[in-house]
Design goal:
Largest sheet: 7 strands, mixed
Shape: globular
Oligomer: single chain
CATH architecture of the largest domain: 3-Layer(aba) Sandwich
Bound molecules: pyridoxal-5'-phosphate
CATH superfamily of the largest domain: Type I PLP-dependent aspartate aminotransferase-like (Major domain)
Structural class: alpha/beta
Length: about 375
Amino acid sequence: MSALDAGALLDQPLLQPSEVVELEGLLAQTLRTGGSVVLCQAEAVTLLEAVASGVAGPGNRVLNVVTGPYGALFGGWLRRTGAEVFDLVAGHHGLSEGSFRKSLAGMDTVALTQAEAATGADLELAGLLRVAGELGVLTVVDAVAAIGAEPIAVDDWGIDVAVIGGQKALAGPAGVSAAAISERAWRRIENNPAAPRSSTLSVLDWADGWLRTDRSRIPGTPSVLETRALLAALRRVHAEGLDAVERRHRRARAATLAAVGALGLRPWAAEGRRAAICTSVALPEAGPGLAGVLQPGVLEPGALLAPGDGPLAGELFRVNHYGRAAELGMLLAGIDRLAEALGVPGEREAARQAAGTAWEETA
Ligand SMILES: *Cc1c(COP(=O)(O)O)cnc(C)c1O
């Protein structure tokens, strides 16, 4: 590591309360809420666990919509609280409002994941939240993968808890996460005798140590680098414009889908259910294309071209077009590699053209 890198990472000035106040404001703007935002000094999965532990307990009946591995994890944390948890599996076709409404009967809480990074699948979130609102059900949304790639309108959609992280479309760090929490959700958590206190999993600690104070002292020992990096990421997002960043992700989705089609592949998620953060592509049927995609070095976890996680590895691969990768030049480089791997170099130009046109034509 060069001296310059060490200088940027070490001996940072103390984190100032004013930086946290600015961060709170930018997070609220990003979540489109005038309500409160909590910060968590850990990655988003920890905050999701904290939320599950805070909103649920014995006596609660929770509908847990499972669109992929994150939803399944959330169900486990809910069950640990003693709540009655009902899983509703929504695959690559999403979930209809009718079946959602039926499943919500008798529930007091619903948990949904928007944009599963593992599957590239989206829900028709605003419509589903409207149904939950009509029934008075408390709503918890894992928006870690959606935030920055597609609008999450906490206030307009009546989301009670929305959890986000910086590491996906916001192109920021993974070490600090945040959640919008409504007044109703605060009452639920405060009245829950099982809600954690004096714990990493306590959102009430942040309320007592920061939200209900004059904000002159940051509680605990903040992760200076991570918190400052999240602030830098959000400043960059809002300098470009949140709408513009979301548009870049829509364009990346359209360009990827166009290229995938031109290369003779098909998307895994159903039409209208495809997330703006990544495109999951059904693996080609057995043949030279399949062998080419699966040869070592083509798909790499976390890279632009990534394998499916766990059991999904045999079904799909992913084009992760989020954050800085939501950019035409990077996508074209990925398309080149894919055409090469599939053994169809002749289709490369057509795929690049299709991607470029889709990018230009997407509003
Ligand atoms: C990435 C992601 C998370 C957060 O997982 P980390 O392990 O903190 O990166 C949570 N939910 C969804 C839907 C995600 O895509």
